[in-house]
Amino acid sequence: MGTKNTHEYEVKLFNEAERTLRYDGSIPFSEWQKVARAKLTELLGLPLTPGRCEVDVEYIKEEDDYTEYRFTVETEPGYDTPCHLRIPKNADGAVPLTICLSGHGGGMHIALGVSKCEGDEESLKNWPHRNMAARSIKEGRAALVIESRSFGECSLEGYGTSCTEAGKIAILNGRTVLGEKVHDVMMILDAVTVKFSDKIDFSNIVCTGNSGGGTQTFYLACIDERITAAAPSCSVCTFRRSIAAKRHCMCNYIPSIRKYFEMGDMGGLIAPRLLVVAAGEEDPGFFIDGTRDAYEEIERLYAAAGVPERCALRVQPGGHLNYADEIWDSLHKMGI
């Protein structure tokens, strides 16, 4: 007998699907990376047509310990992405860069430590780790904060999130919101590299974020080999125990991806570069057993790449948080 339950049937198909691009050792690891990265790029709906990709500065603000540049970059023709770049003062030469990617919420102002919407002040007080820019400055690094598509200033209402609305139309256009987010960061990095070449050491780029920002971090690092170290928090987990297990925002979903990959499989695209996966034991959306399963696959792939010491898993007893202290502790141990 079959089932009348559509959801049950879809889950059955999902669980039975063979991951045809899981690395099996039949070809050299570097060759697998080329094939797998090309397929992931295609699934994300990339490449997109680049815009002017120039930094259009809106203002410059001097603070005690950093200079802040507010600017936009036309990442696609007719689409401008707002950004902030904070560069530490009194640095001896060019400084390394941290790309700070916000998760679902009011927008990038949280990563800047700025209260803009109701509840922001209390949130930043209770969870100061959300202020990723301040932590980057503390680490002696420049902080590039980007407004992700459908978040904050780029959302339907100019605050909050509207990923589902944009995501539905993106799929109709043969695109994905996640692919668009990855494209934006790549184009912004192109523009910033030209504009601030004398101030930033682009050979040392850390990308980090929590939740949706962590997901974006992970996929960006899979595609863009300029990322020296990826540090996603509360986002790396098997699809089976995260976005296929309960309701999540549409910007997490990539058509057909389970035919080729589970999330851990894609971690091999980041090797031999550094990868720190942070997670909470009590995360209600990215279940810890799924994170451990994904990381087990990542460990296998880093061993296949000959660099088992270049990945780390940091699990904390809390929930869906940005575990910045643990991330930076691991990055320091890895030489960042």
What do you see in this structure?
The chain is of the alpha/beta class. The chain has one domain: Rossmann fold (3-Layer(aba) Sandwich). It is 33% helix and 21% strand. It has a 9-stranded mixed β-sheet with strand order 1-2-3-5-4-6-7-8-9, with helices on both faces. Helix 7 links the parallel strand 6 and strand 7 (229-233). Helix 6 (177-195) crosses helix 7 (212-223). The model has no long low-confidence stretch (mean pLDDT 95).
Summarize the structure.
It is built from ten helices and nine strands. The protein has 336 residues and is α/β, with parallel strands linked by helices. Helix 6 (177-195) packs across helix 7.
List the total number of helices. Answer: 10
Spatial strand arrangement across the major sheet? 1-2-3-5-4-6-7-8-9
Mean pLDDT: 95
What's the alpha carbon Rg, rounded to whole Å? 19 Å
Distance between the termini: 57 Å
Low-confidence stretches: none
Give the H and E element order: HHEEEEHHEHHEHEHEHEH
Helix content: 25-40%
Specify the CATH homologous superfamily: Alpha/Beta hydrolase fold, catalytic domain
Shape, principal axes of CA atoms: globular
Please describe the biggest sheet, giving its number of strands, its sense, and whether it closes into a barrel: 9 strands, mixed
What percent strand?
15-25%
Structural class: alpha/beta
CATH names the topology as: Rossmann fold
